[in-house]
Amino acid sequence: MILPIVAYGDPVLKKKAKEISEDYPNLQSLIDNMFETMYNASGVGLAAPQIGLPIRLFVVDAKPFAEDENLTEIEKANLKDFKKVFINPTITSEAGVDWDFNEGCLSIPNINEDVFRKPNIEIEYYDENFKKHSLELSGLSARVVQHEYDHIEGILFTDHISSLKKRLIKSKLNNISKGKVNVGYRMKFPLAKKVR
To answer: What pTM was computed for the model?
Structure first.
């Protein structure tokens, strides 16, 4: 089932999410719905807060990045098969020289900004069967995970940009929260029904 994606301005996007247990209700159905919602919106990642649930869960499928002609064949192969579920994840290390990449977000449609992040990370997490994993990632796969991880920490990619850039996009952000934006997927706008 395709779920509405929560738009910028909803308090759930700024809340640190809580861990879940193995017996979380309808977990597999939730995961399936998150993937379906993400694909419907042409995303490469979706975190539970983006569908209104303040829990430490996100899904990624970086396959669309595998078509980037600037990548090596090894990078393309890694991204093509990078589809995972992350439950109760913890980034245990970030390393390397910060690099920038133009990021966007399904909760903040039609806005993209360069964000600096570390290129290498290590992360521990549980998969959909609650099997624990430890994973080292680099490049775009690390970036996708860092972006989604931020969501469960209550951080948006716009929190990483300069105050000048934030001022420049402030009216666009306000319009998103009010539902004054055209998107090709279902969204839930926090201020859309309020009369000003």
So the answer is: 0.94
- Does residue 61 lie within any of the structural domains? yes
Q: Report if residue 78 sits inside a domain.
A: yes
Calpha distance 82→44 (Å, rounded): 10
Give the range of the structural domain holding residue 49, as residue numbers without chain letter.
5-188
148 is catalytic: yes
Task: Give the tens place of pLDDT for each residue, 130-179.
Answer: 999 999 999 999 999 999 999 999 999 999 999 999 999 999 999 999 99
Overall domain count for the chain: 1
Q: Is residue 122 part of a domain?
A: yes
Instruction: Kindly state whether residue 163 falls inside one of the protein's structural domains.
Output: yes
Residue tagged active-site, from 36, 69, 148, 153:
148
